[in-house]
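Q: What would this complex look like in 3D?
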Amino acid sequence: MSSYQVVREGAKQVIKLLEKFPEERFKYLVSFKATQLERFSRIAGLPISQKSSSEIANNKASIDEIKDIVNRTSGPLGLQKEMLKKMQAAIPHDQFSEASMKDQINALSNLVGNKYKNYYEVGNKLYNPAGNPEYYQRIIDDIQGKKKENILAGLRTVFMGR
Amino acid sequence: MLKSVLRNSGSSNISRISRTNILKNVGAHPFVYYSTTRKTSPLEQTKNISSNEFEFSTKGAPIVRGKNSTATEYTLPKWKEALGEYVIKTFGLDMDKIRAGPVAGSYYYSICKEQGLQYENEPLSESAKFFYEELKLPRTFSQWFQITALHEWMLFVRMRAMPFKYGRNYQQKLVDKTFNDIEMRLFDEMNIHSGRIVDQYSKDFNSQLKGAVFAYDVGFYTDDATLATAVWRNLFGGRKNIDYSHLDAVVKYIRSQLYVMSRMSDREFALGKFKFVPAKEKINKLTSAEEKEMKEKIIKKYEELDKSGLLLPSDRSNLSYDN
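A: Here is my prediction, written as structure tokens for the whole assembly.
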């Protein structure tokens, strides 16, 4: 198998691992899962899923377009040319060798397998902290929509701090 | 604790000079909360990536150390010290509450700040090398803020486990100092002369801090994958071409620091005994026997200290040392 094929196979494995990532309950501006799935679908040569491509179409200006605009103007958005060069140089290029693809897979499987949470067990001391035992559970319940709190509970938190 | 006040806690710790000679006999030997093995790099497994693939230059953004950021040490005159101790004793002041200022506001902020602190004309510190060279983060002011926010959040997690009244106060002092310092640095080091713009930046950093704390909290409580996405969004600014081994290294770093903090008692943490373990050192877990031994030693030490009556009024504390 040529190294090109190995990288492609690796990318497919990465996609499998990425799909195991939990859905984000809270809507953020960018989604890790969606952007990374798209990135590795490209490398693996798979069709990009419908959802992510439609998301791109909805965006008004892509990053490439913005870069183009920024480069064409002489004094772009208050940034000096030198700074722009530095910023561009700072972005790592997306080329994988067999070894680096293997590292990606290793790292992702560590994360998906909850390796560090299980190994560095902090116990109830931090998960149910003495000062505010319900703190984390309230956040999780709220973003998962399990238990919506009423205004009184909210006001209590504002005034009492917990 | 009151005895030495450090102005502009840029890099050095609070130095304690209070009657150490007396306390030494009672048993002030260092405790081990973890054992470490020193490795050449936390990203050992990425070593075999040929260097040109993720290469980039770490030529810094032009941040130069301002005149206010050079640490100067100041020690209270003896008579003021004595007066302070007298006031604390007579009015029965709650030292745990007062200590939040020097410990959380000054010392804990200083260790958060120095993790990602970098100046153009100065060599990077060990911890800064981890963030800017190994994780290849850009050397900018807002990146420094993200690194600081990450470390502050780790301290918040531990502070929540203190009794509510005190933990809350510690968090408040840490945040207050952060924004005071950011404001000072924006004027002094980023050469912004307009107060309006500094206000805007401060508000922006405030919402960034809130967002980061929320995201890290969710990640901390749920799983490593969620924590990794939170790190990606905040510390790495959501960049697309992320190297996953970097995310892996940061998640490991966070979990291991929290592990060390979870083994500390409230008393020790509140007295400012914690410092971040360098990212280069791999933290090994304590065996249950080691943990038991460590706890026994700590309980013995503080029991003796409390009974001995040698503690100054300003060194007393009611926080528990056995959890």
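A: To summarize the key features: Chain B has one domain: 87-315. Chain B touches chain A through 62 residues (CB under 8 Å).
Q: Very helpful, thank you.
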